[in-house]
Design brief:
Blueprint lengths: L2 H27 L9 H4 L11 H12 L3 H9 L4 H28 L6 H8 L2 H32 L4 H20 L5 H20 L7 E2 L2 E2 H18 L6 H26 L19 H8 L7 H9 L11 H25 L4 H7 L8 H16 L3 H37 L6 H18 L14 H22 L5 H27 L3 H30 L11
Antiparallel strand pairs: 1-2
Length: 559
């Protein structure tokens, strides 16, 4: 099959989903109001609550949610064939991710910018809230610690990406000053910023930065991990308009341009997909496609982390409630487009089926490397791009996605620490909350691996925990819809499916961890499973109560 056909079908379906389905959800289910006073205005503080242009906010939201996972997940899952991965990404984006991300943003905006964890307390109960926060904290721990490891590995393996990755921070700082301090319009800072970023990619491909074997007594990877955490800590303390917003915005533009270049290369090269649509000869040891497909591809189809970003930072910056459709739903579409690109790179970027089978000789054999190598081959054959430049561009894309997610993730973890302290009757300030978040993440990274690789220890649970959190978020949104007397079917159906697949996957993984005598992951698996089932039980009770109180419209009490 020609990859162009797959590309056009996927993009057409996602475009139709945004044009029609998201409009139906916005008008009939969430019922957005242009004149509703959002928390960015009513609670404006110039640090976290800042009214933001919807295009800038979309850039923040898109790049925050689109980390390395929408590349890694599909790049691994195509071992079962490109067909299941393609169907889950496309239809998951339209009917699952878009409704979930959009709904989390809307619900938070209608509740003074509260996070999903705190919203669960308001609509499910205190026990549900406490367990919800446990799941959120563990997921953020996985994201922050593991993404630091992923980025450091790419900085070491692709030293040509060092200059553009760190140079992007300086570009973002300048753009933030231009837009917010000097009130310059978006056009020229956007154009110049993207040009400068791509110029740095070209410069980086010519001048790779290779660190010595040890830096200040640390290995190359360990040094990059420490530097990444220090940067993320500083970034999470700054007002969002100084670095977070402009960095995410300009990265979003650069990354969207990169996706466009990759898509054009596919259209010109018109490569053949060498991988099978349904792989009936999977390598020994490959787990069953059901339920593992639906947790291996989390980001790119639906992700609970998106709900945390939407309700944690994005909701505090939404200028108008009607912007939620573009920021939330189209943000999910953007990530779906990235996962579609990953599927094509990892199935059509190889010369022959034998070459593909060599990479996918075992489960987990794909990943970012398959994306970069396959994408590099497509860029070279389609656009004649030098191999070194193509590899630098794709590695930079992957790193910037992961880095912006880490920026937002650490800020979110600080919010969770402060919320947990508030529940316990304690007062934790911004600086102390950030320090606690940093210490916990670095303790995992270096406590379980002296070279910093410990951040990957609990990664096997990421996909399952992520999907469980998405199901729990949809449960909270469903309770809200029922309380407002609206049809919850459009959130209940994806919630039920995700809950079934995630619990099934947790049980399967539990057996694996037991056989491997991995007591840490087995214990965490049990904790997450109990917490998820308990929150679901509490949500079911809340839904029954909500039907009795239907029409109270509790969400609008603060309007």
């Amino acid at each position: 099959m020609n990859a162009v056909v797959l590309l056009l079908i996927g993009l057409a379906c996602m475009a139709a989903g945004y044009a029609f389905y998201s409009k139906f959800i916005a008008e009939r289910i969430y019922r957005l109001q242009a004149d509703y006073a959002t928390p960015a205005h009513t609670l404006r503080d110039g640090v976290d609550y800042v009214p933001t242009n919807k295009f800038v906010l979309w850039g923040h939201h898109f790049t925050s949610v689109a980390g390395a996972a929408p590349i890694v997940g599909p790049a691994i899952a195509v071992i079962w064939g490109w067909g299941p991965a393609f169907l889950w990404v496309v239809f998951g984006t339209i009917f699952f991710a878009g409704v979930h991300d959009f709904g989390a943003l809307w619900a938070s905006v209608r509740n003074k910018g509260k996070s999903m964890g705190m919203l669960s307390g308001s609509y499910i109960g205190r026990r549900g809230r406490n367990l919800f926060l446990v799941v959120i904290f563990l997921l953020l721990l996985m994201v922050n610690a593991a993404f630091a490891v992923v980025i450091s590995n790419l900085l070491v393996s692709t030293p040509t990406s060092v200059i553009p990755v760190w140079g992007a921070i300086l570009v973002a700082l300048v753009i933030g000053q231009l837009i917010y301090r000097w009130k310059v319009g978006l056009l020229w800072p956007s154009v110049i910023g993207v040009v400068v970023l791509y110029a740095m990619i070209w410069i980086g491909s010519l001048y790779p930065i290779v660190l010595p074997e040890t830096v200040l007594g640390l290995s190359q990877r360990s040094f990059w991990i420490v530097l990444l955490f220090l940067y993320a800590g500083i970034a999470s303390l700054l007002p969002v308009w100084v670095l977070l917003q402009p960095r995410d915005y300009i990265n979003g533009l650069q990354l969207f341009v990169g996706l466009g270049v990759l898509y054009v290369a596919v259209l010109i090269a018109a490569p053949t997909i060498v991988a099978p649509a349904f792989n009936e000869a999977v390598p020994a040891g490959t787990p069953s496609i059901v339920p593992l497909l639906f947790v291996t591809i989390a980001c790119g189809a639906i992700s609970g982390f998106h709900g945390m970003v939407a309700s944690g930072t994005t909701s505090k910056q939404l200028d108008k409630e009607t912007d939620a459709r573009f920021v939330g739903y189209f943000g999910a579409v953007g990530e779906g487009m990235l996962s579609l690109a990953a599927i094509i790179c990892c199935t059509a970027g190889f010369a022959t089926l034998v070459d593909w089978q060599e990479v996918y000789a075992k489960f987990g054999g794909g990943g970012v490397v398959a994306f970069v190598d396959g994408g590099e081959a497509l860029l070279t054959s389609g656009l004649g791009m030098p191999e070194n430049l193509g590899a630098t561009m794709l590695a930079t894309m992957a790193i910037l996605f992961a880095a912006t997610t880490m920026d937002t993730g650490l800020r979110l973890q600080r919010f969770v620490v402060q919320e947990a302290a508030e529940i316990a009757g304690l007062k934790v300030g911004t600086l102390l909350g950030t320090v606690i978040a940093l210490v916990v993440c670095m303790a995992l990274a270096f406590g379980a691996g002296s070279d910093g690789s410990g951040g990957m220890v609990i990664w096997p649970l990421f996909g399952t925990t992520n999907q469980l959190l998405a199901a729990l978020t949809l449960a909270v949104i469903s309770v809200i819809l029922i309380r407002k007397g609206r049809n919850p079917l459009f959130t209940l159906v994806p919630m039920a499916f995700l809950l079934l697949m995630s619990v099934y996957a947790l049980v399967v993984q539990m057996r694996t961890f037991y056989d491997e005598q991995n007591w840490l992951l087995l214990g965490m698996d049990v904790v997450i499973l109990i917490a998820a089932l308990w929150v679901t039980f509490e949500a079911a009770i809340a839904m029954r109560r909500g039907r009795a109180a239907e029409g109270e419209d509790a969400l609008d009490a603060d309007a």
